[in-house]
Amino acid sequence: MIIRLLKKLGYFLPTLIIVSLVAFFLSKMPSGDPVDHYLPIDSDMPGSEYEADYYKKQYTKFSKALHLDLPLFYFSLQSVAWPDTFHRIVLPQKKLVLNKLIGQYGNWPEINNYYTSLEAVESTFFQWPDTIAPDQRINFQRSLGLLKNGYQDEVITALYQQLDQALSATRQLPNGSLAVAIMSPSLQENKNNYQHLKNTATPARLRTPALRWYGADNQYHRWISGFIAGDFGVSVRDRRPVFDKIVEAAWWTLWINIMSILIAFGLSIPLGAFMANRPSEEKVGTLNLFLFFLYSIPRFWMAMLLVIFLTTPQYGMNWFASVGLGALSADAPFWNRFWERLSHLILPVFCTTYGLIAFISRQVRGAMLDVGKRDYIRTAFAKGLSRKSVLWRHNFRNALFPLIALIASVFPATLAGSVVVEVIFNIPGMGRLLFDSLLGRDWPVVFTILMMVTILNIVGNLVADILYLMADPRVEIDKG
């Protein structure tokens, strides 16, 4: 048994690795810059040298805190034209421009020299005398910013002409000659570097592949190591640890689902056995039809009906507590808080349970009816065993396999929660947390929940295999 379980576990580990890879790379695909959530300033075009320098330092600081300056994975396969340190460039616009230039020319050293000299031109501009007319400064800075973000040759050439014209106009202003004297050498050096970049282009390098090995110091390794250690990162919405948010939400989801599961299995198994034991009775047919009707009712519709008709005095049926968890504070006596919370969970538990009762009872009925046709059941009756003994010791035991499969699906449900129920009843559980995180693009929370639900699916399947072996040791789970 142990060997077969170890073999089954060997199938699960690759599945977990694949899911972790999918979750990690999906987390890198959403639009928007994750660093923007952490920046203390919001400035796409800093106006002064101090603001520009402060922006770069802050952006670099938070990028390193999020490990965005590391390679994505253990290795990469890309063109030899890209340097193996390209991941260290974290400023998004700079990375975009350099990426486009490499894709055109392929000569990284010359591209790097050109962009470095362009940054020097920007620093030189901030040394202009304050007496230069504001309009002239704004026009020159706008052209310089466009040049810094440009990567097409015709655009860059046109911007160089605009900058030359702006310098000529600046020369006519008071202290303009000083400004031109400050700016001209660095601008001319940048133009020379750009011309050298074009003259030494090596586009053939773009077609030469290169396999780069980065080792364990990469973003995926940091992420999966942190996940295994219980460090799920920080929420981008409120800067709280993701672990703390999940623990708080999981508490209420576990309350709801554990109560629902206990009630569902506690009622469904006797109900299914009762219907299987008397299949021809009219009341059993009516009950089966009612269960089918109950199972077909959408959960969101049932939840809305319960909220509207059973929690509001407008319809004269204010029988249950309304949505939420009550208004008692944490300082209130424990039993007062307990009973108030419990009164608010009655309807959510019902919404989570009624469909399970209908489904599980029909599954138990169907499995027991199928087993009841077997020869060994007729033999048991022929031996004079009581109907109750045959029903539970022979029929029910051999009809356990569909029930075991249902138990396996319970594990992820206990943590994932029900988004519809928790949102409608305003329960701060895992389903509500997932819904709010998706709306708020809080991807660290979303992908942590995805990974945890995947792990619970794997655990559920493993538990199901153990239960299969306990129910029938002849089962070959290593072939499943």
Beta-strand percentage range:
under 5%
Shape: elongated
Distance between the termini: 14 Å
Radius of gyration computed on alpha carbons: 34 Å
The helix-and-strand class reads: mainly alpha
Proportion of helical residues: 55-70%
Largest sheet: 2 strands, antiparallel
| Total helical elements | 18
Which descriptors would you attach to this protein?
single chain, 480 residues
List the helices and strands and how they pair.
Elements: H1 2-27, H2 49-65, E1 75-79, H3 92-105, H4 108-125, H5 134-148, H6 153-171, H7 176-199, E2 209-213, H8 219-228, H9 242-277, H10 282-296, H11 299-310, H12 334-371, H13 375-382, H14 387-398, H15 400-416, H16 419-424, H17 430-439, H18 443-471
Antiparallel strand pairs: 1-2
Helix pairs in contact: 1-18, 3-4, 4-5, 4-7, 5-6, 6-7, 9-12, 9-15, 9-17, 10-12, 11-12, 12-14, 12-15, 13-14, 15-18, 17-18
Description:
This protein is mostly helical and 480 residues long. It has 18 helices and 2 strands. The protein has helices spanning 2-27, 49-65, 92-105, 108-125, 134-148, 153-171, 176-199, 219-228, 242-277, 282-296, 299-310, 334-371, 375-382, 387-398, 400-416, 419-424, 430-439, 443-471, and strands at residues 75-79, 209-213. A two-stranded antiparallel sheet has the order 1-2. Helix 12 (334-371) crosses helix 14 (387-398).
